[in-house]
Amino acid sequence: MLAQALHRDLVLELVEATAEDAERTAALHRDRGGGLASTVKPDDLDMLAETLRETLVAERATQLDVTAVQTLGSPAPPKHDFAYMPRGAVASIVQSAFETFARESFTVHRRKLLDDRRSGLKPHVTDEHIADVPLTVTADGRRVWGRFEVAKHKILSDPRWVKAVFAMVHRSLHGRVPFNPQPAAPPALADPARLILIGDWGSGLPRALDVRDRVRTVLAEPDTARRDTHVIHLGDVYYAGERKEYVDRFLDPWPVTAEHGDVGSFTLAGNHDMYTGGEAFYATALADPRFALQERSSWFRLANDHWQVLGLDSSYEDGGLYGDQAMWVRRMRAQHPDAKTILLTHHQLFSAYEDGAVAMRAKLMPVAAERPVDAWFWGHEHRCLVYRDLENVRFASCVGHGGIPEYVPEQALTPPKGLVYEYRDVHSTHSKGLQPWITFGFAVVDLDGPRMHVRYIDERGREHWSTEHE
User: Fold this and answer.
1) Does residue 447 surpass a pLDDT of 60?
2) Strand, coil or helix: what is 134?
C-alpha cells in the first residue's frame, strides 16, 4: 500500500477533483453533441459526480479516530494521516483506482519516511510512497503531503481515469454478483480439530505478512498434524476487493500452500470484499484450489458430533444477513441439538467501541434467544476483544486485528459490560514516536470432543491470552 493512498486528505481531494472532472467532461460532451471519444455517457458522468460529492460529504462528516493512548505526554497525530480506511464503498474505490494508476504514473520508493517511527526493521504501516510528492511533518507530528497537482495532472488527465472510477462505482451500485443460495457442505470435521481465525488481514502490509508467518509456525506445530485443521479468514481484502488486490494481498501471501497437505482454507465476505460487487471474491478468491472446500459459496458448515461451525455472510447485505441464512442457522441447531454451535461472521454482534450490525442482530438474536450460542467470532473492527456471557452468547470475540493498523484506544475507567479481555500491547514498544499502534495477531481454536480451547497469538509469535470452555 502507498502512503499517499492511506492519507485521508489526499484521497478526499482526489474524490472532489474527480467529481469536478466528471462534471466538466459531461458538459463538454453536451456542448459538442457527444463528439468526444468516450464510452461513458453524460448522464452517467453526472451520476458519478453526484455520487462522489455525496461520498465527500459523508466522509468529511465521519469521525474516524478513536481517542488514542498518549505517549510521551502528547496526543497521537490523527490516524487518518497514516492509515485511512474508509468504511464507505466509493471512497475505497477511489483509493483502489488511485493506487493502481499511481504505480503506473509515478516512481514509487520503498525507504524510510521522514516521519517513520518504526520498531525494528518493519514500518508501523508502510514505507512505500510516491517519490515526487513531497512530505513535511508539522510540529504536532501530523504528516502533511504537498499539494497534489502532480497527481492531478498525471492521473486526472489520463482518459482512462474517469472511465475506470465510473466502472468500479457502477459495479458497486448496480453490478453485485448473484448470491449463492446454497451453503457449502465440506466433509465432516474430524475430532480433534483446529481452526485458525484471521480477520481483516488482506492488506499486504509488511506486518500482515508477519502474521502470515506466525500462522505457518502454528501449521508446523506437531499438534497440528494430528488435527483436522482449517485456516479461516473473517473477511476484508483492501481497498475494494478488486481482482489484483486479491491476487497480491490475499492469495499470493495466503498462509496455506501446497506443502500444507490437507489443511483447509475458507474466507468470509467482508464489506470491502463487496465494494465492487463481489465479483473477485467469487471468481478469484473462491476459485483458488485451496478454497475448493467452500464450493464457491460465501457461507458454509463444518461439523462433527460435538461441534458445528457456521460461517455466515454478513456483507452481501452490508451488516445484514442476506437470504435464508438465519433460518438455516435455526434449522442446523434444531437438527443437531447435541452439537455446540460456533458462529463466524465478518460484522460484530456487539462492541465495546462501535455499534453492532443492526440488521444481522435482528435476524440472529431471536435464534440465540431459543438456546445460547456457544461461541461467536467476528472481524470488522481492527481489534482483539473477548466477551463472555453477553446477550445469550457464552463466548464472543473480535479477531479483526490481522492486518490493518489501528491506534490503541484510551482505556475506559470501567470496562464495558461483558468485556473480559482486550489486547492492548503497543506495537512500537521500542519507538520514540507518538503513534501507539496495536499489535496484529490471530486466534487458534482447538476442539477436543466437547471442549474448546482458544489462544491468541500476535505478529511476533507471542501467545498473549488463552481460555478454555466446555
Assistant:
1) yes
2) coil
Torsion angles phi and psi, residue 445, rounded to 5: -110, 115
Name the H helices within 106-225: 149-151, 160-174, 206-219, 222-225
Q: Tens digits of per-residue pLDDT, 162-182?
A: 889 999 999 998 889 999 999
Cβ-in-10-Å burial (0-12, 13-18, 19+) of 112 comes to exposed
Say which CATH number the domain at 262 has.
Answer: 3.60.21.10
Nearest CA-CA partner of 206 in 11, 440, 424, 456: 440
22, part of any domain: yes
Q: How many residues does the chain have?
A: 470
C-alpha radius of gyration, the chain, whole number: 23
**19 contact partners, CB below 8 Å, separation of at least 6:** 48, 49, 52, 53, 56
Our measurement of the distance from residue 134's CA atom to the centroid of its chain's CA atoms, rounded to an integer in Å, reads 29
Dihedral pair phi/psi, residue 388, rounded to 5°: -135, 140
- pLDDT, tens digit (0-9, with 9 covering 90-100), for 78-94: 888 889 999 889 999 99
Is 188 inside any structural domain?
no
* 198 and 168 belong to one structural domain: no
Residue 413 located in a structural domain: no
Question: How do residues 324-341 score in pLDDT, each as one tens digit?
Answer: 999 999 999 999 999 999
